[in-house]
Design brief:
The structure holds 2 protein chains of 2 kinds. Chain A is built from 11 helices and no strands. By secondary structure, chain A is mainly alpha-helical. Chain A is elongated. Helix content of chain B is 79%, strand content 0%. Classes of the chains: A mainly alpha, B mainly alpha. The interface between A and B is large, with 42 and 50 residues.
Chain lengths: 297, 306
């Protein structure tokens, strides 16, 4: 995109959505890390050397291989039930990837639909949706998620629903703002004159124009959602044991912390950090590339 | 001005009303609270007795009415577990939360503002990149993990700081840092962008043209003006901090309202959960209202709009 369009803040008018992406400053390492985590998540049952949920009690609290007492059988050590930390990390990637992506998509769908309806229809629909959004924003997201998790009880799919119901507001706000300016544009007016129904206009003319922002927001939300899932699991109201989730591993590792069993705390935390950091870096890059209007956020 | 304030206040009341409805109905729609209170395998009669005791046998709207009337009297109900009023519990924990949040806020401003200024003065140079990395890490690391790593380093290996509990200034350092890093990152980013904006303004250019030394331009002309949005955000963040400290309080066994919320969740103590969430929402709504009104007082364009 040219410098002029960036300065004026117009959306890029390139023929293809991704034609404006220049790959020069592509954040290769974050993309590789995210891709790697997704790969590990998909092939977890092939890659993991041990069963992540069953350990041998004779092999409890083994340190990683390079410390005295470690063995090559358990590269990153074992936990309080003698389960292999590496295998649990590998299967934990699956939980993070599944929960992260589905929750982001779920929240994105709710938020985008409500944002389009609110922005395009205006009037009492807009008022109603925006008041609900305000109410949702009045609570810190984590508090609301804890509240919901406390009521519905722990399960992986409940977490997806909870996070979706918690994090849709940002999409709604941003999408509504964009729709408000889009609906004054020529092509929307022409569509109205041509006799298109409201639904057709929203679906065919508004939707394709806001999808960029939704994708950018989604990437940035991925990190937030993964931290939220880890937080809920850490507090014991997320993914239920013995399923391997990184937040749950941190919660188990907390007991061993005071006696210096550092590997139970450091490794899962590093996995969360790597994934969130990569998602944030990728999201920042996408934001600058795809959507100059979002740059100020 | 009066009309603007009236409209803002009515929006806030509406938000609080919707919040109370949401919380009230979510608890009831997702299941019968009575089944959570009795032992597993309790008889129908036991459940019916509990229904009667807590008024759960009445129509929903009557229950909601009673809930609202007692709320108006400052009564958030009785805790199932502690057998005492939720409001009393809440108020007994609040000072601890405020203490933790204030120290975390002070830390986040002490780190965020100078590093933001440094980054804005040295755009694109080493300190700018270092600041960006610090901010990126702050926004990407889960606060509870930062807390765990701090415990590992400073309590377990070095033995300098107590790993949990409260009572002395030493107990505050790690939880305040774990909680404050994220906010330090946010304050740093805002200081940087706000400083950049001010540094490009006409009056800073004039100050430079007058030949004032760089340090004076930054300290006196730029910094003071750049501080306004940062302090506003800090005000809102202080209230948010009190309410998002749940995990940090859990990690360090800090007896604040976050820990109360956590206990409420583990003991399925619904009046406590409801109360803490509702109070948190009310605090944030009120602070946002105050900020809006303050801005309207300062800037006439806002109150004349629409």
């Amino acid at each position: 995109m040219s410098i002029q369009t960036e300065l004026i803040g117009l959306p890029p008018r390139s023929p293809s959505r991704f034609a404006s992406l220049r790959l020069g400053d592509f954040p290769l390492i974050p993309a590789l890390i995210l891709g790697g985590i997704a790969f590990v998540a998909i092939f977890a049952n092939v890659l993991a050397p041990h069963n992540p949920e069953i350990g041998s009690l004779t092999a409890r609290f083994r340190p990683p291989v390079w410390q005295t007492g470690g063995s090559t059988q358990y590269l990153l050590g074992t936990d309080q039930l003698g389960r292999d930390v590496l295998s649990r990390l590998i299967f934990g990637a699956r939980v993070s990837v599944v929960v992260g992506f589905t929750a982001v998509i779920f929240a994105g769908v709710i938020g985008t639909v409500l944002g389009i309806l609110s922005g395009y229809l205006g009037g009492w629909v807009d008022q109603a949706i925006m008041r609900v959004t305000d109410t949702w924003l009045a609570l810190p997201a984590v508090t609301f998620a804890i509240f919901l998790a406390a009521i519905v009880g722990p399960s992986m799919w409940n977490i997806v629903i909870i996070l979706g119901l918690t994090y849709w507001t940002r999409y709604a706000r941003v999408v509504r703002g964009e729709v408000l300016s889009l609906k004054e544009r020529e092509f929307v007016r022409l569509a109205i004159v041509a006799g298109c129904s409201k639904w057709t206009i929203m679906r065919r003319h508004i939707m394709p124009n806001i999808i960029n922002s939704a994708i950018v927001l989604g990437t940035l939300m991925l990190g937030v959602v993964i931290i939220a899932e880890a937080t809920l699991s850490f507090l014991g109201i997320g993914v239920p044991p013995p399923q391997p989730a990184w937040g749950l591993m941190l919660s188990d590792g907390k007991q061993g912390l005071m006696v210096g069993r550092w590997w139970l705390t450091i490794f899962p935390g590093c996995c969360i950090m790597l994934m969130v950091l990569s998602a944030n870096l990728l999201g920042d890059w996408l934001r600058v590339k795809l959507d100059p209007q979002l740059r100020q956020l | 001005m009066k009309r603007y304030i009236a409209r803002r206040v009515s929006y806030c009341l509406l938000s609080l009303f919707l919040l109370s409805v949401t919380i009230f109905f979510f608890v009831r729609v997702t299941g019968d609270p009575a089944t959570l209170l009795v032992e597993p395998g309790a008889s129908e009669a036991d459940i019916a007795a509990i229904h009667q005791q807590f008024g759960l046998d009445r129509p929903l709207w009557v229950q909601y009415g009673i809930f609202m009337v007692s709320l108006a009297h400052g009564d958030l109900g009785q805790s199932f577990y502690y057998r005492m009023p939720v409001m009393e519990l809440y108020l007994s924990r609040l000072p601890n939360s405020l203490l933790l949040a204030s120290v975390a806020m002070a830390l986040s401003l002490l780190i965020g503002i100078p590093s933001g200024i440094l980054a804005s003065v040295r755009v694109g140079r080493f300190w700018d990149s270092a600041g960006k990395l610090f901010a990126l890490l702050g926004l990407s690391l889960p606060s509870f993990w930062v807390g765990l790593v701090l415990i590992l380093v400073f309590s377990v290996y070095l033995g300098w700081l107590p790993s949990s509990g409260s009572g002395s200034a030493l107990h505050l350092i790690m939880p305040a840092f774990a909680l404050g890093w994220y906010f330090a990152a946010a304050h740093m980013r805002l200081t940087r962008s706000s400083m950049l904006e001010v540094l490009g303004s006409e009056y800073v250019k004039l100050a430079r043209l007058k030949g004032l030394p760089q340090s004076l331009v930054i300290a006196k002309h730029a910094f003071k003006n750049a501080l306004i949005p940062v302090l506003t955000l800090a005000g809102i963040n202080l209230v948010i901090m009190v309410n998002v400290a749940v995990v940090v309080e859990f990690v360090f066994a800090w007896p604040g309202i976050g820990r109360l919320l956590y206990e409420g969740v583990t003991f399925r103590d619904f009046p406590v959960v409801q109360g803490v969430v509702l109070m948190g929402g009310a605090m944030i709504v009120i602070v946002n209202l105050l900020v809006d009104i303050l801005y309207a007082v300062i800037d006439p364009r806002i109150r004349l709009e629409s």
